[in-house]
Amino acid sequence: MNKRAVAVPMLAAAVLALGGCGTSSDKASSDHSPGSTGGSGPVLKLATKGKVGKVLVDSSGKTVYFYDLDKAGETTSACVGPCVPLWPSVSAPANPTLGPGVSGTLGTVKDANGGSQLTLNGHPLYTYSLDKDAEDAYGPGYDHIWWVVDARGAKVTTMGGSSGSTSSPGSPSPSSTGGGGGYNY
């Protein structure tokens, strides 16, 4: 009798655990391709982000960034080691698309984990882990090497939606989110 009393709760726990695995697995597969839209919309689109202006976002609305240490045309991302969890790559879906008003050529490179990372005009794309909500854009100017991206696929180094400038952002206030050099626009 004691064996049965122990076996039933263990069986119930095993069934619940297996059910949870299915849910985790489903979430994990969607996390591996945040840009995947299943044909329901563009992978890269425009959004207005506070003082940053109109910039590219992924299909979930997260701000998209360029990394100055990446060189256009390279076959791998330069973001490795401690960079990877702070600046997750934008995963490349099978059929990436651009939203209205967005121009450029989409492609892929290998990210630090060996996955397929989306590129725009040959430049790898990232999100910023401290951008928790869709309206967040805390990464522009981070260490003077991370920049938001405009509708033409150019990095934005000045605030208010201007692009192509190589100057640093004008007198930004340090981000209260920490992270060593990020700016909160």
UniProtKB/TrEMBL annotation:
<protein>
    <recommendedName>
        <fullName>Lipoprotein with Yx(FWY)xxD motif</fullName>
    </recommendedName>
</protein>
<dbReference type="InterPro" id="IPR005297">
    <property type="entry name" value="Lipoprotein_repeat"/>
</dbReference>
<feature type="signal peptide">
    <location>
        <begin position="1"/>
        <end position="19"/>
    </location>
</feature>
<dbReference type="Pfam" id="PF03640">
    <property type="entry name" value="Lipoprotein_15"/>
</dbReference>
<keyword id="KW-0732">Signal</keyword>
<feature type="compositionally biased region" description="Low complexity">
    <location>
        <begin position="164"/>
        <end position="176"/>
    </location>
</feature>
<feature type="region of interest" description="Disordered">
    <location>
        <begin position="158"/>
        <end position="185"/>
    </location>
</feature>
